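Newbie here. two chains, one complex. Structure please?
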Amino acid sequence: MVLAELVWLVLLAPLVGVVVLAAGGRRLGEPRAGRLGTAAVGASFVASLLVLVGLLSLDSHHRAVEVSLFRWVPAGDLVVDAAFLVDPLSVTMILFVTGVSALIHLYSIGYMGGDENYSRFFLYLNLFVFSMLILVLGNNMLVTFLGWEGVGACSYLLISFWFGDEANAVAGKKAFVTNRVGDFGFLLAMFFAFGAYGTLDYAGILSGDVAQSTATAILLCLMLGAAGKSAQFPLYVWLPDAMAGPTPVSALIHAATMVTSGVYLLVRFNPLFEQASPWVGEVVAAVGLATAAVAATIALAAKDIKKVLAYSTISQLGFMFVAVGVGAWTAAIFHMVTHAFFKALLFLGAGSVIHGMGGEQDIRRYGGLARAMPYTAATFAVGTFAIAGVPPLAGFWSKDEILAHTWGANKLLWALLLLAAVLTAFYMTRLLICTFGGKPRWPEGVTPHESPLLMRLPLVALAGLALTAGVLNLPFTHDTEFLGQWLEPVFAGAHAKALGYAGGTKWILGGVAILAAAGGIWAAVAVYARRRVPAEKVERQLFAEAWGFDEALGDFVGGPGRRAFDAAARFDAGVVDGAVNKVGTLVRRTGERLRATQSGFVRRYALGVAAGAVVLLAYFISRVSW
Amino acid sequence: MTLAAASSQAFPVLGMLVVLPLLGAAAVLLLPRSRVELVRPVAVLFMSAAAAVAGWIIVEYPVASGGFEMIVDQPWVAAWGISWKLGVDGISLFLLALTALLFPLGALATDPGHDHKAYYVWLLLLEFGCLGVFSALDLLLFFVFFEVVLVPMYFLIGQWGHGNARYSAVKFFLFTMFGSALMLVGILATAFLHASATGAPLTFDVVEIAQAQSLATTTARWIFLAFALGFAVKVPLIPVHTWLPDAHTDAPTAGSVILAGVMLKLGTYGFVRFGLYLFPEASRYFAPLMLTLGVVGILYGAIVATMQTDFKRLIAYSSVAHLGFIILGIFALNTTGLSGGLLQMVNHGISTGALFLLVGFIYERRHTRAISELGGLARPAPVLAMTFMVVMLSSVGLPGLNGFVGEFLVLLGAFEAHRWWAVAATAGVILAAVYLLWAYQRVFHGPARGENATMSDLRWRECLVLAPLLALIIFLGVYPRPVLDRMEPSVDALVAHVEAHDDPAGVDTAETEPAP
C-alpha cells in the first residue's frame, strides 16, 4: 500500500473533532474542548507528514495519487466521486494549512478562555480545517467547491461568532454574500468545463484540449470566484469587515489559509492559461496589481491594528495574483506559504496586544508596548521585517521571486509592484513603531501585560518559520529551488515560464528589492519615530476612507438597490395581487346581483366538492376487490 | 418479492399506502367524543404506518426499473374506461416517501388548539389525497385525488389558521379550483380524442395514452396548455402565485409544512407526469416559455422575499424561487436537469418543511411573525438557532447539505440546454443567500430584548420532529446516490420518450432553438 493513500486520515482527524465537539463539546468544557480541537488538527498535521513521506518515496513523475472514497453524484453523464488528489501542490497546501492551523488552535486555547461559547469556537474551527482540506485535496471541481463553500460558511459562522453585537452579524453576512458573488463565477466555470470536457475531474480537464474561447471563459469565471474568496478588487470589501471575528479567526481564515484558496485554484488550473487567450493572464495580473497597490495605500492610513493587517493581507494576495498572472506559479505558492507564516504571526501578535490592552484596537492608543510585552514585540518585529522584504527573512525571498518574474513579463508592472512593496515596508514599520515604540498613549486604567505561555509558544514557532522559510526555495542554483523542483510535475503541462533574462539582472533586481524595503522602512522611521514629516501628510483622508469604494457600494446597496427591491415587493403586493383581488371583487359583485344569498359561498362549495368526492370514493371502493 | 411487486395480483402494497390514511380518518371519526386525548396518537399511528409502508416500498422498489412498479389495476367505471390504477416509478417514489414522512412530523409538531378530531381527520384525508395524486395512473382518478386535496386544506387554513385565515383559505380554494376546472376539460378532451383517434374504447389510462401519442400536434399543444394552467397555479408560477404567500402565512404550522413540502409538488409532479409524459412534443414546444417562467420565478421570488417583514411570508416567497429552479430543471428536458428537478422537489420538501416547523415553533413562543419584533434569539435558544442555521444553509444550497446537489444538477442541465437562462438562474444563488442570511441576522443575531431574551429553547418533542429532517439534510447532501440511482432509469426513459416524439415534420420549426 502506498503511504500517500492515507490521505483520508488527514481528513478524518478534524472530522472526528467536529463530531465529538458537536455532540459533547459543552460537556467537555474549557479547556478540554480546546485541547481536543487542537489535538485533532495536530493529528491531521502528522498524517499530512506521512502523506508527504509517501509521496516523496514515489518517482517524481508518478507523484499524483488519486484516492476515491465513494460515488457522490451519479446523474446521467455527470459522475462525480468523493475523491482526493494527492500531488505536490495539494500536499504543500495541506502541510501548511494543518501546521499553521495547529499553532493557531493552540493559541486559541488561551485566547478564547472564559468565552461562553468556548467549545463551539473549536467546533467551527475544526469544521473550517476540514473544509479547507477538502478544498485543496479535491480531485474534481465539485469536491473543491464543496470545500470552497464550506470554508465560506465557517468564515460566516466565525465572523459573526460574537453575534450579540449587530455589527459582527452584519460583517458575517457581508462576507458570505460577497463570496457568493464569486461562487456564481465558480459555478459557471463548472458548467463551461463540464460542457467542454464532459467531466469535472482535474485529470480530465487539465490534460484536455479545448477551444481558446472555452478555456478563456472557464478561467475568467474562476477568476471571479477567486477574487471573491481571495478578496481581490472589486470583491475585497468583505475582508476588512471580517476582522469583527475573534483574532485567531482573522489569523487562520482571513490571513493564512482560506483567503489563499483563490490563488490555489488558479494555480491548479495552470495548464488552461496556455490554451486561453493571452490577455487572461494580463487581466489576472492587472487585478492583482490594482489590489496590491490600492490596499497598501489604505493600510498606511488605517487606525485599527487589525484593519492594517487586513488591508496588508489583501495587498499581499494581490502580489500572488500578479505572480499567477505572469505565470510564476511557484512564486505564487512560495509567497502563499511564507505569507501564511508571517501574517499568522502578525495577527496572533496583534491578538496578544489586544488581549494585553483589554480589547483596545486603535493604534493611536498604543505606544511603548515593547517593554510590557517583550515576546510579542520581538516576534511582531520578525513578522514585520519578513513581510517588508528584509533579507534573509522568508518574505524577502518569495516577494523577490514575484518581482523578478514580473520584470520578465512587463517592466511597468514590475515598477508599480515595487512601489507597492515600498508601501508594504512603510506601513508595517509604521504599525511596529506606533504599537511598540515611542511613549505610551494608553487609555485610562489599562495596564498592558504579556500573554500566557500557551499564546507565546505559537508566536515563537511562527517567528522561527518566518525567519527561515526562505530556504524552501533559494534562487541561487536550480538545486536550491526545492519548492520549484517539488512542484514541477504539477506545472509540467505548462512549463513554468523562465525568467527570460540573464543571471546578472536577477542579482541587480534583488538589490533593488532590498533597497525598496530599506527605503520604506527608512521613510516610516523618519515620519513616525523622528517625526521629520507630520504623519497627516502621509495618512491622506482618501486612504483612511479606503478610497470611498466600500462606502459608495454600501450607499448603492442601501439606496437604489434597496429601493428597487422594495419596488418589486410593492409591485407584487399592489399590482399582481391587487389585480387578483380586483377580479375577486368583480366576480363577487356580479354574483351578488345574480344571487340573493351569498354567505359562505366557497365554504358550501368546498363541502359540496368534499361530499361529491366521498360519494365517488365510496362508489369505487365498493367496486374494488382487493 | 421483487417478482411479486411487478405483478398486479400480489399484495397491493401501494394501494395499502394510499388507503391507510383514509382508514385512519375513519378510525379517528369513530373515536368517542370523551377520548379526545386519543385523537392525535391514533392519527399519528396511521400516518406512521403509512410512512413505514413507504419505507418498505423504497426497499422493495427495483433500482434498475425504468417503468411502473407495484401496479394496482382494477376497473372502476368500466363503461367509461375509468380504473383504479396505481403505480410507482422512480419519479413518484420519493415524492410518496416525502409525503408519508412529512405528515406524521407535521401532525406531531404542533397542537391545533381546538377541534382536535376534525383537524386530524382533515389532515388524514389530505394525506390520502396527496398519496393518491402521486400514484394515480388513471387520468380521472388523478383528477379526483387532485380535487380531494383541496378541501381539507381549505378547512385547515380557514379554521385553524392565523391572521386573515378566512380570506387566505378562500383565495387558495378559488385559485386552485380555477386551475383544475380547465384541467378537467383537458382530461376529458385527451381521453375522448385519444379514443376517437385510435378507434379503441374510451380509456383514461395514462400509460396507454402516453405511449400511443395519437393526438394531433396542435391539439396536443392546446390541451397541454389547459393542464399547464392547472399545474402553474399549484406550483405556483408567476403571475398566478399570489395565493401562496397568503395561504402559507395564515395556515397552521402543519398546514404550511404540507403546503410547501408536499402540495407545491403536485404542480411540478403534474408537469412531469402529465406534461412531459402525455404531451412530449408540446412540452418541448413550450419549454422556452416554461424556462422563462422558471427563471422569472427564481429571481422575482427571491427579490420579493428579501423585502418581506413577516418571517413566514419570507419563507413562503422563498418557495416561489425554489420551485422556479425545479421548473427550470424539468424543462431543460435532459437527464441531468430532470434528475436535479426531481431531487430538488424532495429537498425543498425537507428543507422548507423544516423551516416552516421552526418558524411555527418560534410563533408558538413569541406569538408574532414580524421580523422586526424578533431579534437575538440565538442567545436564549441556541439549539433552535443552530438547527435553523443548518436548515437555512441547506435551503441556500450549501454543498454537503441536501439542497446543493439538486440545484447544481438543475443548473448544469439547464446550462446544457439553454445557456443564458442558466446563467440568469445561477444569479439566483446569490439572492438566496441575501434574503435568508439577512432574515437570520435580524431574527437570531444582535442583542435579545424584552420577551426575546427569555424565549425557551426547543423541547424534546420538537427536537424529535426535526431530527429526521436534519438527518436527511445531511445524508442526502453527502450521499444522494440511493435517490439518484432509483430516479435515473425512469428519468432516462422519460427523456428518451420526449426526444422520440420530437417536432413532427413541418410544424413550426422556426420556433425551436437554432442549431448550434
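Moderator note: Strands of chain A lie at 65-75, 78-86. DSSP finds 26 helices and two strands in chain A. Thread marked as resolved.
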